[in-house]
Amino acid sequence: MSGLVYFSSRSENTRRFVEKLQLPALRLPINNDDLSPRAETAFVLITPTYGGGSEKGAVPKPVIRFLNDAENRSLLRGVIAAGSTNFGAAYGLAGQIIAQKCAVPLLYRFELLGTEEDVINIKQGLERFWTR
Questions:
Q1: Which Pfam families match (predicted)?
Q2: How far is Cα 81 from Cα 91, in angstroms, rounded to an integer?
Q3: Is-contact 73 42, C-beta < 8 A?
């Protein structure tokens, strides 16, 4: 199985979810001034959705900066998005935007901290994804 790259804001919701997956993962820095890491293998990105339901600002700036690096972007294989169902059609919008712009599949969406069912679904889904 290849890796995970994720972004988590100061709320740490996404970090706590990724830890439940118990899979190797690279965290993108919170501070936009910190150097963005380089992906070394194919990866699936896990990102929260920002913007309160608006497309503008839905993708966190550190994620944009990371994916603006052509080498990082070339290793992106799929995206998983966190969001809030309170935003209706904009639920997990960051994942939809990234998937469309980078021509990769949106593999899954989960709400806020996710559930145990989300953890199981993602772990099983990633295993199938990387072995096909």
A1: Flavodoxin_NdrI
A2: 9
A3: no
The yes-or-no verdict on residue 1 having pLDDT over 60 is no
d(Cα 84, Cα 130) in Å, to the nearest integer? 27
The tokens describing 96, both together, are 């939809």
Q: How many CB atoms lie within 10 A of CB 70?
A: 7
**Beta strands 25-27 and 76-83, pairing class:** unpaired
Least Cα distance to 5 among 65, 89, 57 occurs for 65
Take residue 89 and report the two structure tokens written for it.
């059609």
The one-letter amino acid code at 23 reads L
Q: Which helix (H) or strand (E) holds 25?
A: strand 25-27
Global model pTM greater than 0.90 = yes
- Distance, in Å, from the CA atom of 28 to the CA atom of 34, rounded to the nearest integer, reads 9
